[in-house]
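User: Please run a holo structure prediction.
Assistant: Happy to. Please share the sequence and the ligand.
User: Here you go; the ligand is magnesium ion.
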Amino acid sequence: MSIRIKMLLSFTGMVVISLLFVLFTASLYTIAATGDLQSFRDIYKVHYQVNPLTDQGEAIFQELKYTAKNSPDDLQDVVLLREYDMKLRVEKSGLFVRRESHQIFESLTFNQPELGRALPPYDLNNNQIRSTFNISERFYAYAKFDFTFSDGERGSVFVIRERSPVAELTRKLLPVMSLLLIGVLIVTNLLLYRWITRSFIKPLNQLKDSAERIKEGNLAFQLKRNSNDEVGQLSEAFESMRNQLQRSNELRKLDEQNRKELISNISHDLRTPITNIKGYIEGIRDGVANTPEKMESYVNIIHAKAVSMDKLVDELFLYSKLDLNQEPFLFKTVDIVDFLEDSIEELRYDMEGKGVVFGWFNHAAGPVMASVDLDKLQRTVVNIVDNALKYMETDGQRRFGITLDADSEWITMAFMDNGKGIPEEALPHIFERFYRTEPSRNSATGGSGLGLAIARQIIDGHGGLIWAESEKGAGTTIFIQLKRLTEEEVRHGESQHIDH
Ligand SMILES: Nc1ncnc2c1ncn2[C@@H]1O[C@H](COP(=O)(O)OP(=O)(O)OP(=O)(O)O)[C@@H](O)[C@H]1O
Ligand SMILES: [Mg+2]
């Protein structure tokens, strides 16, 4: 059974129960007001006129009528009349007998001086022998019979019963009230139903549609939250789930794309040296290298290609281990000034051999301690310096400089060259694997595009930052920022192990 039908049934049930309850209360009220159950039942007959008396009262009336027809003068016998009246009193009724010249008998039951005047005129045809009348607020029902006394004077006998005005009012108002009540309840029911449908069924249907869309793989939509209630919260939770799913879907696609690119890049980068090696070996086999000089040059080329392949495979292996978090970091507390000075010592010779002017500027006061994996940080520096040398195509003097700055929190190293720079649009990508500003992937002018990607993985593993600033034609600066250890940390020999 759908919620819609359940709601409809429960509302209708509520309406019916309230209605029954109201009817029950009304009945109780009417019984209380009129004094007996019979009166209440009477209300639903159009009856006071048809049936104004109780059964016993009616029987007495019939007796009186018979007497009026057959021996009308007996109805002047007050003793007899009082007897009848006593019997009627039990039925909450009373007797009234009149003749044209005077009133013969009036029951004491009603204590109503106006009674004589309120009674209907004589009608010997007895067209309407049962009816009602009221004297101001009091309401009476009667049965009457008109006849003639033996002397020819007209007379009437009345059996009168007083009815409660409240009962009369109830009789008139109850159907109207009931109808009104039913109307109000139906309208309320409809309004409630509409409200509930709007606040529950609609959003639930929306959720159902959304779930179906997701099932079909369509995640590109938005689910709006319409309310602050539980259904609204459910919509919001659903929306965040959809968002999450969409994001992970996109990530999965990106990963897939990356994987394809990775395979294609690796195959490309490996194929080039292999093709070269194959070519030179075929040259040797076919006797093209027919002089010892040629032979030596061929073998040197083959060796160089094999070395570059070895380097590539090595880089790839390191990169993938870093990427999979499978490369362990061996952290040690190190003075970065010492570290850089040692590195520079090794680099200086190489640089100056290539005609590069080298500068080292330490702006940090005192030892600057950090927790680092020395080998890996060394590798990072080598990759950066390698690039600087490789891409420093300038007509004038080639310069390379390293600076060190430190505040209480961070140590910042900068590696500056005055090379050709990196185009602005390429700058955000240079730390991506296999990214090269020159898309030709020509190994003569560049590497495989893994150097800076490895550098970033290593610095990430240290909880540090690495970024580049560059101006085309003016040079490039690569910054590395590492967390500085406080004196306290150094004293306690705590080398912060950075989980990565
Ligand atoms: N100092 C620099 N000056 C100009 N361009 C640079 C500099 N450093 C990096 N680049 C650009 O960024 C790209 C990415 O550098 P990265 O070191 O990651 O790769 P690579 O040097 O091409 O190859 P690999 O380092 O693996 O041999 C380079 O191809 C180069 O275009
Ligand atoms: Mg490089």
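Confidence is low (pLDDT under 50) at residues 495-500.
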